[in-house]
Design a protein that fits this description.
Layout: H1 2-14, H2 18-38, H3 41-74, H4 77-111, H5 118-147, E1 152-155, E2 158-161, H6 164-169, H7 171-201, H8 206-241, H9 243-249, E3 256-257, E4 261-267, E5 275-281, H10 284-290, E6 296-297, H11 311-338, H12 346-354, H13 357-372, E7 377-379, E8 383-384, H14 385-388, H15 394-425
Antiparallel strand pairs: 1-2, 3-6, 4-5, 7-8
Helix pairs in contact: 1-3, 1-15, 2-3, 2-5, 2-7, 3-4, 3-15, 4-5, 5-7, 7-8, 7-12, 7-13, 8-9, 8-11, 9-11, 11-13
């Protein structure tokens, strides 16, 4: 349990920085492309301002990602020994191809503002954006393999690679990538809109931040709508590959046709495993899972108790993620109608400023659904979580866990303080840009 908590803390902290890197890299590439095509120096100024936040965020993502990967050896050595032939190859490719590419070109991007032409500089940013998102695909393919293992053979007491293409092209990996990256793009869009709203409320650099807001608004609107549609497809994949997770996501206990979705649930006063479900929508779960409102959905009662994931955590995180997903659609659609008169709508701007943390909450809730809902399996159907932990003393894990919390707490405070400081300061004057 301590190893699980430590890995969860490291993962959740790391994932505070990854999504903004993914989404902001695309937005920066768009800004630089507009500078290169139009010659308008305001777009260069815009890219430099948001680029400072991007670089701070990227640096923290690298640091926390490295410590996260070390835990496969320190805390999860048995897991690494069992699946290292598969999992290790995916992470190695991610590091040697995508990560080194993005790291190298970020250095080029930072130090060549006045040395490369606008078109060449924009091309460098597109390389960074591509490498960043390719990196995400390799990592998410590895996670998808843990969720739905394919392309392997069991030999000599371990899982060994048999079909590499099956692993990286399986539908579960593609759907997980699309879902996660879309959420990351929403994070970036809301951060840019929220910071822009702060300055617009104070009537600072109105033209600059109106332009930034509109660009991020369209970006976030597209992917908020896409995320809702794609989430439906994701539900179908979970229903086929991980039926107990689907049942836990909806607190669905009894196998039945026209299975409902419950909008709310709460623990029973007697402390039993079941939840008290409230406000059912008949047939909605059948439709989500099998695209047929009359389809039969297997309930948790048909799984052995030791094979059921924690229901309350999975259900609660799923509802938070879905509820916020629809809220993002509402906020971006609202923004579409007021985009040409933002300074005349201070209420909306305050909403968007306060909404900055919400996409972060949504993506962290999504990871909780994915990882808590996978329990008790570390690799679905192959290895239980308890079987993958390293044979180390609990006191050692407790000490390192506390150290992680303290260190990451200080690191997080410093990082977000720096980003907030640059965000509040605003862009440099055009002559200095």
């Amino acid at each position: 349990m301590l190893s699980r908590l430590q890995f969860a803390a490291a993962t959740f902290f790391h994932f505070l920085f990854v999504p903004l890197t993914l989404g902001l890299s695309i937005l920066l590439a768009i800004m630089e492309t507009r500078w290169a095509v139009s010659g308008n120096q305001e777009f260069k100024r815009m890219a430099r301002f948001w680029g400072k936040i991007f670089v701070i965020n990227f640096a923290l993502g690298v640091v926390t990602g490295i410590t996260l990967e070390f835990q496969f050896g320190t805390n999860w050595a048995r897991y690494s020994a069992y699946v290292g032939d598969i999992f290790g190859s995916l992470l190695a490719i991610e590091a040697t191809i995508a990560f080194f590419l993005e790291s190298t070109f970020i250095g080029v991007w930072i130090f060549t503002w006045n040395r490369l032409s606008p078109r060449a500089h924009a091309f460098v940013m597109w390389l960074i954006a591509a490498a960043t998102n390719i990196s995400a695909y390799w990592i998410l393919s590895a996670n998808a393999w843990m969720q739905h293992p394919v392309g392997y053979v069991l030999r000599n007491g371990r899982a060994e690679l048999d079909d590499f293409l099956a692993i990286i092209t399986q539908r579960f990996a593609v759907v997980e990538f699309m879902h996660t990256v879309s959420g990351a793009y929403i994070v970036a869009g809301f951060v840019v809109m929220g910071v822009s709203a702060y300055h617009l409320l104070k009537k600072r650099e109105v033209e600059f931040f109106t332009r930034s807001f509109r660009m991020a608004l369209i970006f976030a609107l597209i992917f908020s709508l896409f995320e809702v549609v794609q989430g439906h497809l994701n539900g179908g994949e979970v229903a086929k590959a991980q039926p107990s997770k689907l049942a836990a996501m909806e607190s669905h206990w009894k196998t039945q046709k026209r299975a409902p979705i419950y909008l709310f649930a709460m623990p029973r006063p007697d402390g039993g495993g079941n939840l008290i479900e409230i406000l059912p929508i008949p047939g909605a779960l059948s439709l989500l899972a099998f695209h047929d409102p009359n389809a039969e959905v297997k309930g948790l009662n048909d799984f052995k108790p030791e094979d059921r994931p924690p229901v309350l955590l999975t259900f609660g995180a799923f509802k938070i993620m879905v509820g916020l997903g629809f809220l993002f659609v509402l906020l971006t659609v609202w923004g579409l109608f007021v985009r040409n008169r933002l300074t005349d709508n201070p209420r909306y701007l305050r909403f968007m400023l306060l909404a900055i943390p919400l996409p972060y909450i949504a993506i962290e809730a999504g990871w909780m659904v994915a990882e808590v809902g996978r329990q008790p399996w570390l690799v679905w159907g192959l290895m239980r979580t308890a079987q993958g932990v390293s044979p180390v003393d609990a006191h050692q894990v407790a000490v390192s866990f506390i150290a992680f919390i303290v260190f990451y707490g200080l690191l997080g405070i410093t990082a977000f303080w720096l980003m907030a400081r640059y965000a509040k300061r605003g862009p440099e004057p055009l002559a200095a840009a």
